[in-house]
Design a protein that fits this description.
This protein is mostly helical. Helices cover 52% and strands 7% of the residues. α1 runs antiparallel to α2. The protein starts with 5 loop residues before the first strand and ends with a helix. This is MFHA1 protein.
């Protein structure tokens, strides 16, 4: 909901635990709940903006109001839910086909037809090579300038500049190959070449009843 022009594909697992009629009924129910959730979000944002604009100290909340308006303008496209049986490989393949079909939809993803300069592919291949090298630490974290120097040591990337690398990293971040939080001051000079390591860390930290679990430790 905080990402501009998001496209979300809901997936319903455990379809094998329901009959065909139940699957369709649950699919419709879930989609209606999602629709209600989006409507509630829109209503809440409008309510918050209205309250800030009507406040006696409205000038103190300009930044907050602008941020809320920005969120209000974000479009969120919800695709039809795909029910699957995770124990059936044919269902997994069907899900893959549905995802590919949507990704190739130029109306949903206008950038799918964008032609990338050859250097983008060259840098992408080089970064994959660096990430898979034996000298790369398991966490996959690398200083931005060190990454630039590593890439520039390759003959075909010797003229690679910092600004061009940052443009390429933004693209690779969007497609999920790497993670680069350039908007976070303490992380702007760190590139995560192994996004799956971050997922592992998040799974350890963001969990159900985490506070209670920590408090139970003597």
């Amino acid at each position: 909901m905080r990402v501009p022009n998001s496209v979300v594909l809901p997936v319903g697992t455990h379809a094998d635990c329901c009959g065909e009629a139940d699957v369709e009924e649950k699919r419709c129910h879930i989609m209606s709940k999602i629709g209600a959730m989006l409507q509630e979000r829109k209503s809440n944002l409008s309510h918050f903006i209205h309250n800030l604009e009507g406040s006696e100290d409205a000038e103190l909340y300009v930044d907050q109001r602008e941020r809320l308006k920005e969120l209000e303008n974000h479009t969120l496209t919800i695709l039809n839910l795909v029910p699957i049986n995770c124990t059936d490989r044919r269902d997994i393949q069907r899900l893959e086909a549905v995802i590919l079909e949507h990704v190739r939809n130029e109306e949903l993803f206008p950038e799918v037809v964008r032609v990338l300069p050859p250097v983008y592919r060259q840098v992408e291949a080089a970064i994959v090579d660096v990430a898979q090298s034996e000298e790369m630490a398991e966490h996959g974290m690398m200083d931005l300038q060190y990454l630039l120097s590593k890439l520039c040591h390759r003959e075909h990337l010797a003229s690679l500049g910092g600004e061009l690398l940052q443009d390429i990293l933004r693209y690779l971040h969007r497609v999920g190959l790497i993670i680069w939080y350039e908007e976070i001051k303490h992380l702007e000079n760190t590139v995560f070449l192994q996004p799956t390591f971050l997922i592992t860390i998040f799974k350890l930290l963001v969990r159900y009843r985490l506070v209670q679990q920590l408090e139970s430790i003597s």
